Amino acid sequence: MASDDCMVLVDGGHAEWARRAARMSLEILSVLPSASIEHIGSTAVPGLPAKPVVDLAVGVSAREVSRSAHQLAQHGFDLEGERSHHAWLSFPVRSARAYVVHVLEFRGEEWTKRVRFRDILLADEMSRERYLAVKQEASARAKDWGEYTRAKASVVSEILQRI
Length: 163
Fold this sequence. Notes:
By secondary structure, this protein is an alpha+beta fold. Helix content is 48%, strand content 19%.
């Protein structure tokens, strides 16, 4: 899958990604009106090259995570997986992702980690550069989304611990 366009990092798409995030946030709120939504991931960081896939964190109460994910699945999202207090979906489908939506416990551990990581990348150039180097290597070598994500995990942990 490394040759797939979605595994290629694109530079300079932030304004469009922000518009897409805002539009999808409205779609999600039409299904989950009490959710809190944050644009996360590299597409939320101006100047950081990214896969052209917008990541969103959708925060709901812990007891509503699974139900909320299944509601989104009934409205055309592709439910890829679930674990305690976290479900993730693609839109339109996992084989042609334009969005990855993480349904999380609002202000829970995963929510906080993802929002904090985005905020660190926004504020700290050294962290951005370190993360970009790992992303570039991962996008060149990864054969699928799981491998790409695993290749970045250690640098994400390192950055979160350092700051």
